[in-house]
Automatic annotation (TrEMBL), chain A:
Pfam families: ABC_tran (PF00005). PROSITE patterns: ABC_TRANSPORTER_1 (PS00211), ABC_TRANSPORTER_2 (PS50893). The keyword Transcription does not apply. Residues 2-237 form the ABC transporter domain. Keywords: ATP-binding, Nucleotide-binding, Transport. PANTHER family: OSMOPROTECTANT IMPORT ATP-BINDING PROTEIN OSMV (PTHR43117). SMART domains: AAA (SM00382). The keyword ATP-binding applies. This is ABC transporter ATP-binding protein. The lineage of its organism: Bacteria, Bacillati, Actinomycetota, Actinomycetes, Micrococcales.
UniProtKB/TrEMBL annotation, chain B:
The lineage of its organism: Bacteria, Bacillati, Actinomycetota, Actinomycetes, Micrococcales. The keyword Disulfide bond does not apply. This is ABC transporter permease. It holds the Pfam family BPD_transp_1. Keywords: Membrane, Transmembrane, Transmembrane helix, Transport. PROSITE patterns: ABC_TM1. It comes from Glutamicibacter ardleyensis. The keyword Transport applies.
Length: 275, 227
């Protein structure tokens, strides 16, 4: 469990990145921070592994105040997956994945075994182990990034727009992989995105943020779609238009749902299947 | 060509002397430039002064530097050490800039990724910043090496023997072949050291090897259906 309590972050030039933010992130669930760029969602994420230290307030992981822990050790204990993979260009795929085990003093051999194991977990062929990142496609690089984040078997996995830079088809594939992985691994995942569809797909808890990391609404995807907190949220998640504004249409074969463009999206199955 | 054939032993031994003097200067200059370059890169305030001052070193005429250094350090003007110190200063003059530019060339995303993974700052410098700055630093080192090897010949003017001897001796005795032999030997040594540096670079920085091949690997990788 990760707790933010009255956390603020302001910079010397006076900008408020985060203002009085409180939130409980449940263990073994996926929490997604979603909001437009500059809303402070990445700053919140980077506070969890002390890449950014808050100006005030406290952040606790499993009831322990993180500002009292050495930053380097804390970072090694938390998996981090970043946009554009963040792979080290001079390390091979296996070396990249094995980075944290090696930093923790594991032998070259055992960390390589671990790396190969993780490559299989994330669906990369072992033949890629000795390639360099620039020899991989964007999607493959992201897989390596995920494998690296999991290398030390951390309880917490931070993901900063990890699928933001890959094409939509690969993104959809990686999202499904993450869902599958999470079912197996049961990590506490904190995921940052600006894509509301991605947030609803992956999140158990979705946090919609506005500038200054102001919480507009916190809840499960269903809760948010069923009861948006205000007009801004409704328009941000798109319940008033497009694919989420569904209406019922009667056809000779029963009722179907159509979106705002008039395209039929699916059949309405009534409770008790009487129609 | 007769002169060269008859004096091949002399040319050989002078070449070894020459190589030894310049290699020491190149190596020491390189080792000094890393911390100096790091300080200049890390602390913005000292960056301008450090880069400018070390750069200005290069504008001091070499003969003058060989005369001034003994006064400042108490070394004998005709000692080999005097020449090596002077060459080292010139090496630093070129290399510091190269190290600063090299560290500047490191992708900030890679640096921040390394920090997020849990590298301490010293460890990150040696494991991430320095190797990634490698290609630019190597380019600076190659210029330094060639320049030091050619500059070393000036030593003969203060009495330090190396391939420069072939120039002064050849001019005094009007043996044009001897002068050419000197130029040729200096050029060959410079080329050989440059080639050696390229090979060491490839060995130490395998990820920079053969960009053509890696291009093909990218194509190959995308063809495989693993996204």
């Amino acid at each position: 469990m990760i707790e933010f309590e009255n956390v603020s972050k302001h910079y010397v030039d006076g900008t408020m990145a985060v203002e009085n933010f409180s939130l409980t992130i449940p263990a073994r669930k996926t929490t997604v921070f979603v909001g437009s760029s500059g809303c402070g969602k990445t700053t919140l994420l980077r506070m969890i592994n002390r890449m950014v230290d808050p100006s005030s307030g406290s952040i606790r992981i499993d009831e322990q105040e993180i500002s009292t822990k050495p930053a380097v050790a804390l970072r090694r204990s938390i998996g981090y997956v970043m946009q554009n993979s963040g792979l080290l260009p001079h390390f091979t795929v296996a070396e990249n994945i094995a980075t944290v085990p090696r930093l923790e003093g594991q032998s070259r051999k055992s960390s390589r075994v671990r790396a190969l194991e993780l490559m299989e977990t994330v669906g990369l062929p072992a033949s890629m182990a000795d390639r360099y990142p620039h020899q991989l496609s964007g999607g493959q690089q992201q897989r390596v990034g995920v494998a690296r984040g999991l290398a030390s078997d951390p309880n917490i996995l931070l993901m900063d727009e990890p699928f933001g830079a890959v094409d939509p088809i690969v993104r959809a594939e990686l999202q499904q992989e993450l869902i599958r992985l999470q079912q197996e691994l049961d990590k506490t995942i904190v995921f940052v995105t600006h894509d509301i569809d991605e947030a609803f797909l992956l999140g158990d808890q979705v946090v919609i943020l506005a500038a200054g990391a102001q919480k507009l609404q916190v809840g499960s995807p269903s809760e948010i779609i069923e009861d948006p907190a205000n007009d801004f949220v409704a328009s941000f998640i798109g319940t008033d238009r497009g694919a989420r504004a569904l209406s019922v249409k009667h056809t000779p074969h029963g009722r179907v749902l159509v979106d705002s463009q008039g395209r039929t999206q699916g059949r309405l199955i009534e409770d008790g299947s009487s129609s | 060509m007769n002169w060269i054939a008859e004096n091949i032993g002399l040319i050989g031994s002078l070449s070894l002397e020459h190589l030894r003097q310049s290699l020491i200067a190149i190596l020491v200059g390189f080792l000094l430039s890393i911390p100096l370059g790091w300080v200049a890169w890390r602390y913005r305030l000292v960056r301008g002064p450090v880069v400018t001052l070390t750069g200005l070193l290069y504008t001091i005429p070499s003969l003058a530097l060989l005369m001034i250094l003994p006064v400042l350090t108490g070394m004998s003007a005709i000692s080999e050490a005097n020449l090596i110190v002077a060459l080292t200063l010139y090496a630093v003059a070129i290399m510091v800039r190269g190290v600063v530019d090299g560290l500047d060339s490191v992708d900030p995303a890679a640096r921040s990724a390394a920090t997020a993974l849990g590298y301490g700052s010293a460890r990150r410098f040696f494991a991430v910043d320095l190797p990634l700055a490698g290609p630019v630093i190597l380019a600076g080192l190659r210029v330094t090496a060639v320049s030091s090897i050619s500059l070393a010949t000036v030593g003969i003017l203060v009495g330090v023997t190396n391939l420069g001897y072939l120039f002064t001796n050849g001019l005094q005795r009007r043996i044009i072949e001897e002068v050419f032999a000197g130029i040729l030997a200096v050029a060959l040594i410079a080329l050989a050291v440059d080639l050696l540096l390229i090979l060491i670079g490839r060995w130490l920085m395998p990820w920079t090897r053969d960009p053509k091949k890696s291009q093909q690997a990218v194509k190959h990788a995308t063809r495989q259906q693993v996204s």
